[in-house]
């Protein structure tokens, strides 16, 4: 019980910290919002239920006014803004990523975690996020989707990084990889 | 940890947080129902006036918080100028601005402790479906307490990287960062257990 709780809380803090630490760059010089990497890792490392709870806890703290989103944003305003769909999609993405990693018994963990991150962290997250964008901007789903195309390559790189990091954690702290317990 | 609550004290800081949140909900729904650009312009002016009531510093910091919306406003404006449905475009932009400005207003005028009280009250009925309110409260406290700690550790890792390499830290620095986080989680769990741990819910 205590261990579950502290892992969920610490991961919520990690997602916040990843968005606030200045400058972690991809090797190609693209500055990554490491925050969505944090969402993917919550799923791949903590598993479906705990991963989603960590993300929900993170969002709860953002909602009550802590500046935990990338760039120090937060408060209720971000839930009224056009990107609300992505925020609501975060816990769903973490859950699905975790579920895929938990249920997949074959293949190397790096590959499983990467594919899970692509399905949950890109496909599912974008569907929910674009739906939110469509509602907020009063545009069709297809038109709103066009705004997001430029982010896809960066997110695929993030999914691969999430896979590599998960494999590294599986080696360094196998007991802490709760998605595989 | 600094919250986004405004350091400029206003009368609204004293109002009950629950009432402000309920008001925000009602007004946000109202905003969706309104379709006339004129009423939206009026609505947004009133919201801006509310900011002005709290003084210049409060007003300016409130306006600054709306700047993050500019890419969306630009896209919607261009789109509607292009297809000629300007009235609809104005409605969408003003609705967005009012909704975000109102929500920010509640965040800026509500103390973090008041918000946590609201969560405490809202979570209580959920104990019947098995939510452990004590666990939720400890989690909130842990995150608020440990985020600055983690940021400090992450920054130290980045600095250690820079001390050894001419290049900027890249994603590989995230690996030791997560290891540190997971170890911290284990240590905190032990510390919690040593102090009595999480009590089961009253129902059990």
Write the layout of secondary structure elements.
The complex is a heterodimer of chains A (181) and B (204).
Chain A: H1 2-20, H2 34-46, H3 48-63, H4 77-80, H5 84-103, H6 109-137, H7 141-146, H8 152-172
Helix pairs in contact in A: 1-2, 1-3, 2-3, 2-5, 2-6, 2-8, 3-5, 5-6, 6-8
Chain B: H1 17-33, H2 37-53, H3 56-66, H4 70-83, H5 86-108, H6 112-123, H7 133-164, H8 174-194
Helix pairs in contact in B: 1-5, 2-3, 2-5, 3-5, 4-5, 7-8
Kindly estimate the percentage of residues of chain A that lie in beta strands according to DSSP. Answer: under 5%
Unreliably modeled segments of chain B? none
Based on secondary structure, the structural category of chain B is mainly alpha
Percent range of helical residues of chain B? over 70%
The assigned structural class of chain A equals mainly alpha
Determine Rg of chain A (CA atoms, Å). Answer: 16 Å
Radius of gyration of chain B, CA atoms, in whole angstroms = 23 Å
The biggest beta sheet of chain B, please? none
**How is the biggest beta sheet of chain A arranged?**
none
- DSSP E strands of chain B, number: 0
CATH architecture of chain A: Orthogonal Bundle
Count of β-strands of chain A: 0
What does this structure look like?
By secondary structure, chain A is mainly alpha-helical. In chain A, 71% of the residues lie in helices and 0% in strands. Chain A contains eight helices and no strands. Chain A has helices at 2-20, 34-46, 48-63, 77-80, 84-103, 109-137, 141-146, 152-172. The chains are: A mainly alpha (181), B mainly alpha (204).
Provide a quick synopsis of the model.
Chain A is mainly alpha-helical and 181 residues long. Chain A is 71% helix and 0% strand.
Summary keywords:
heterodimer, A: 181 residues, mainly alpha, Arp2/3 complex 21 kDa subunit ARPC3, 8 helices, globular, B: 204 residues, 2 domains
């Amino acid at each position: 019980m205590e261990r579950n709780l502290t892992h969920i809380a610490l991961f919520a803090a990690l997602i916040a910290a990843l968005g606030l630490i200045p400058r972690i760059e991809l090797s190609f010089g693209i500055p990554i919002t490491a925050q969505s990497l944090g969402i993917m890792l919550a799923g791949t490392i903590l598993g479906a239920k705990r991963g989603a709870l960590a993300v929900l806890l993170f969002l709860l703290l953002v909602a009550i006014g802590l500046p935990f989103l990338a760039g120090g944003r937060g408060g209720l305003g971000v839930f009224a803004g056009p990107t609300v769909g992505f925020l609501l999609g975060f816990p769903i993405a973490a859950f699905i990523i975790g579920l895929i990693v938990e249920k997949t018994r074959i293949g190397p963990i790096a590959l499983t975690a990467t594919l899970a991150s692509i399905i949950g962290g890109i496909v599912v997250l974008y569907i929910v996020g674009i739906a939110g964008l469509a509602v907020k901007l009063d545009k069709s789903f297809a038109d709103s989707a066009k705004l997001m195309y430029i982010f896809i390559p960066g997110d695929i790189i993030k999914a691969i990084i999430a896979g590599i990091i998960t494999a590294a954690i599986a080696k360094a702290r196998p007991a802490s990889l709760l998605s595989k317990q | 940890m600094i919250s986004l609550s405004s350091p400029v004290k206003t009368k609204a800081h004293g109002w009950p947080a629950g009432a402000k949140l309920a008001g925000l909900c009602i007004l946000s729904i109202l905003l969706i129902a309104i379709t006339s650009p004129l009423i939206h312009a009026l609505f947004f002016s009133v919201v801006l006036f509310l900011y002005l009531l709290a003084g210049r510093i409060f007003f300016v910091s409130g306006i600054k918080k709306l700047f993050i919306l500019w890419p969306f406003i630009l896209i919607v404006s261009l789109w509607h100028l292009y297809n000629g449905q300007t009235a609809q475009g104005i409605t969408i932009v003003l609705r967005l601005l009012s909704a975000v400005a109102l929500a920010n207003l509640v965040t800026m005028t509500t103390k973090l402790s008041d918000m946590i009280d609201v969560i405490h009250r809202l979570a209580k009925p959920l104990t019947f479906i098995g939510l452990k309110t004590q666990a939720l409260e400890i989690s909130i406290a842990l995150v608020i307490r440990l985020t600055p700690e983690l940021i400090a550790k992450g920054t130290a890792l980045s600095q250690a990287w820079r001390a050894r390499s001419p290049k900027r830290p890249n994603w590989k620095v995230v690996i030791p960062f997560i290891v540190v986080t997971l170890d911290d989680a284990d240590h905190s769990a032990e510390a919690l257990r040593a102090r009595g741990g999480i009590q089961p819910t009253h129902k059990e």
